[in-house]
Amino acid sequence: MIFRKLSGGPAWDYNEFDRLRRQMEWLSNGFTEGREAMTGSGVFPLVNVTEDMDHYHIRAELPGIKAGDIEISVTGNTLSLSGERKIPEEKDNVKYHRRERESGKFSRIITLPAPINTTKVAARSGEGILTVTLPKADEAKPRQITIQAA
Amino acid sequence: MTEKESKALQAKEKTEMAPSAELTRTGPVFTPAVDIFENENEITLLADMPGVKTKHLNIDLREDVLTLTGDVEPQENAGEVAVLKEYRIGRYFRKFTLSNLIDQAKIEAELRDGVLRLRLPKVEAATPRKIAVKAG
Question: Which residue of A32, A96, B23, B78 has the fewest CB atoms within a 10 Å radius of its CB?
Answer without folding.
Answer: B78
